[in-house]
């Protein structure tokens, strides 16, 4: 399909067309013309919107596709379709599957099953064998097969010695560690953020300290070992400050924030709706403001979906027993853009497209004639209502049905394929 994108503002810091409003033609997957005006041909599919923008394709660094083992919640193909609907042309998939992605075999499975898709899928291998937090997994073999990094997903690395070895080993094979931060001896059995709302409604709280003490410990280990460490989804004011200090010291540390943790506060749980139960939990207003400042000043590097599909049997339960997570690839950009009213569209694109590739060591696609198109087309001013028809995931555990957002992905182009959002 030949695509003509009309009157589109280019947002690409590495393009000669950055900041300009142009017409952009893609033929057979290649950007063939970028001009002030291109005449529409009957063979072109024309994309237009009132405030249309185009950037290098967005890449999500934190998503669960549940495949292998939990395909009834999500599989690699439905997850990729949800990613395309949300404007992403690349996704890092986490290893918390069954079996977990802890050996060459599982990495090969993911890559073989997603080869030649529109959405590029980058598997993240386990840090520990069996995802059990005891012994290092086969990191070298997984790296050779194509694992982009190593993580134990939502399981924090409790064993400090294991993290020491993981950082040292990953550095030796030119990779890095992604680690969730949650000290279970502090957050044990907590259901939501510890604060005024948790006290008022009688739910056991998860103190900010549970995250921050793990961030502090892991940064101390990083300072000792060297290497490279990424925090996938921080959620507290204290975590932002600790990471800011570590960066000032010159440590190779980066951090992400889930889009819904920028938009929603813990007060959303006042009615015990399990769709708002996430990990890390929704925090208070002061934390949200700190996260937004962290994005603005560069302390937080990336915005992620933290896509966590769950079937109805795991969500339609009493709050204490319901699983955590939101299916959020379709709404990640819209949530972030709606929340970040003081951030420029250029900064948001940096957090969605540029910084993820910089951290992962992936070449940034260029918006330039002759280049293969890896593009996200979006309208940051479009007001729209999120409805069931927009959900491409197998699961529907989202609190956003019926919500009005500002900003929407319109189309993605990658690997000589096109996806037009519903």
Strand residue percentage: 15-25%
Write the CATH homologous superfamily of the largest domain: Metal-dependent hydrolases
- In the CATH scheme, what's the topology name of the largest domain? TIM Barrel
Which CATH top level class of the largest domain fits? Answer: Alpha Beta
SSE class: alpha/beta
- The number of E-state strands comes to 18
Overall spatial form: globular
| Low-confidence blocks of residues | none
Number of helices: 13
Tell me the domain tally: 2
Explain what this protein looks like in three dimensions.
With 422 residues, the protein is of the alpha/beta class. It has two domains: 2-53 and 369-420, Urease, subunit C, domain 1; 57-360, TIM Barrel (Alpha-Beta Barrel), CATH 3.20.20. The protein contains 13 helices and 18 strands. Strands 1, 2, 3, 4, 5, 16, 17 and 18 form an eight-stranded mixed beta sheet that branches. A five-stranded parallel beta sheet has the order 9-10-13-14-15. The longest helix has 18 residues, at 208-225.
Short overview:
With 422 residues, the protein is an alpha/beta fold.
Strands, helices and their partners?
Blueprint: E1 2-10, E2 21-27, E3 30-35, E4 44-47, E5 53-56, E6 58-63, H1 76-86, E7 88-93, H2 104-114, E8 120-123, H3 139-145, E9 150-151, H4 160-172, E10 177-178, H5 184-187, E11 192-193, H6 196-201, E12 205-206, H7 208-225, E13 229-231, H8 237-249, E14 253-258, H9 260-263, H10 285-297, E15 302-304, H11 312-315, H12 332-339, H13 345-360, E16 375-385, E17 404-414, E18 417-420
Parallel strand pairs: 1-4, 1-5, 6-7, 7-8, 9-10, 10-13, 11-12, 13-14, 14-15
Antiparallel strand pairs: 1-2, 2-3, 5-16, 16-17, 17-18
Helix pairs in contact: 2-3, 4-7, 7-8, 8-10
């Amino acid at each position: 399909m030949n695509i003509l994108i009309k009157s589109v503002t280019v947002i690409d810091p590495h393009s000669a067309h950055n900041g300009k409003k142009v017409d952009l033609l893609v033929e057979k997957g290649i950007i063939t013309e970028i001009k002030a005006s291109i005449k529409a041909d009957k063979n072109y599919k024309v994309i237009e919107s009132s405030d249309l923008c185009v950037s290098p394709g967005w890449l999500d660094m934190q998503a669960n596709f549940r495949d292998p083992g939990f395909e009834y919640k999500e599989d690699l193909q439905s997850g990729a379709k949800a990613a395309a609907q949300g404007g992403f042309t690349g996704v890092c998939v986490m290893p918390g599957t069954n079996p977990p992605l802890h050996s060459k075999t599982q990495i090969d499975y993911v890559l073989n099953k997603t080869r030649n898709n529109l959405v590029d899928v980058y598997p993240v291998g386990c840090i520990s064998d069996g995802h059990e937090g005891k012994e290092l997994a086969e990191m070298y073999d997984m790296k050779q097969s194509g694992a982009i990094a190593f993580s134990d997903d939502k399981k924090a690395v409790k064993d400090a010695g294991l993290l020491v070895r993981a950082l040292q080993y990953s550095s030796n094979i030119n990779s890095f560690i992604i680690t969730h931060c949650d000290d279970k001896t502090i957050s044990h059995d907590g259901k939501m953020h510890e604060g005024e709302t948790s006290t008022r409604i009688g739910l056991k709280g998860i103190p900010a300290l549970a995250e921050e003490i793990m961030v502090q410990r892991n940064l101390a280990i990083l300072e000792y070992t060297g290497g490279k460490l990424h925090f996938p989804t921080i959620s507290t004011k204290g975590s932002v400050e600790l990471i800011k200090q570590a960066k000032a010291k010159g440590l190779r540390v980066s951090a992400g924030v889930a889009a819904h943790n920028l938009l929603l506060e813990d007060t959303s749980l006042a009615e015990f709706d399990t769709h708002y139960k996430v990990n890390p939990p929704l925090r208070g207003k002061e934390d949200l403001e700190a996260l937004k400042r962290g994005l603005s000043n560069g302390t937080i590097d990336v915005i992620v979906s933290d896509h966590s599909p769950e079937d109805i049997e795991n969500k339609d339960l009493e709050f204490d027993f319901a699983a955590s997570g939101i299916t959020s690839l379709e709404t990640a950009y819209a949530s972030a853009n709606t929340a970040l009213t003081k951030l420029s569209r250029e900064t948001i694109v940096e957090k969605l497209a540029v910084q993820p590739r910089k951290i992962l060591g992936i070449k940034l696609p260029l918006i330039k004639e002759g280049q293969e198109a890896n593009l996200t087309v979006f309208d940051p001013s479009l007001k729209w209502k999120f409805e069931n028809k927009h959900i491409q995931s197998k699961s529907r555990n989202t609190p956003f049905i019926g919500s009005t957002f500002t900003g929407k992905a319109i189309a993605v182009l990658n690997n000589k394929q096109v996806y037009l959002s519903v």
